[in-house]
Amino acid sequence: MANTKSALKRAEIAERNRVRNKSYKSAVKTLTKKYLNAVEVYKANPTPELQQEVEVRLSEAYSKIDKAIKRGVLHPNNGARKKSKLAHRLKPLTQAAE
């Protein structure tokens, strides 16, 4: 346990930040899974409606990743890697449709 007043305050701040960061990371993972599920459904049955759904999910995931980077929850390179990974899942499907 913290011995000084300032150390106690820093411990409280660290805990508050940990909980906030955890919620951001969880949201990023959730939106990523929703996007990947939408891609799988689109892969099985490529229709314009499903393609639009996939694009909406991708946009939501990108937005949450960017917000996490802005808040300092994710390192910029980590966020870029996550976004790249998402884009690579969709690229072969859209090229096949053309």
How would you describe this protein?
The chain has about 100 residues and is an all-alpha fold. The protein has one domain: Helix Hairpins (Orthogonal Bundle). It contains 3 helices and no strands. About 15% of the residues are buried. The mean pLDDT is about 90.
Outline of the structure:
The protein has helices spanning 5-44, 48-71, 76-97. By secondary structure, it is mainly α.
User: What is the N-to-C order of secondary-structure elements (H for helix, E for strand)?
Assistant: HHH
**Number of structural domains:** 1
Using DSSP, what is the number of strands? 0
Helices and strands: which structural class?
mainly alpha
What's the CATH topology label?
Helix Hairpins
Distance between the termini: 61 Å
Mean pLDDT: 92
Q: Outline, from the CA principal axes?
A: elongated
Set down the secondary structure blueprint.
Blueprint: H1 5-44, H2 48-71, H3 76-97
Quick tags:
mainly alpha, Helix Hairpins, 3 helices, 88% helix, elongated
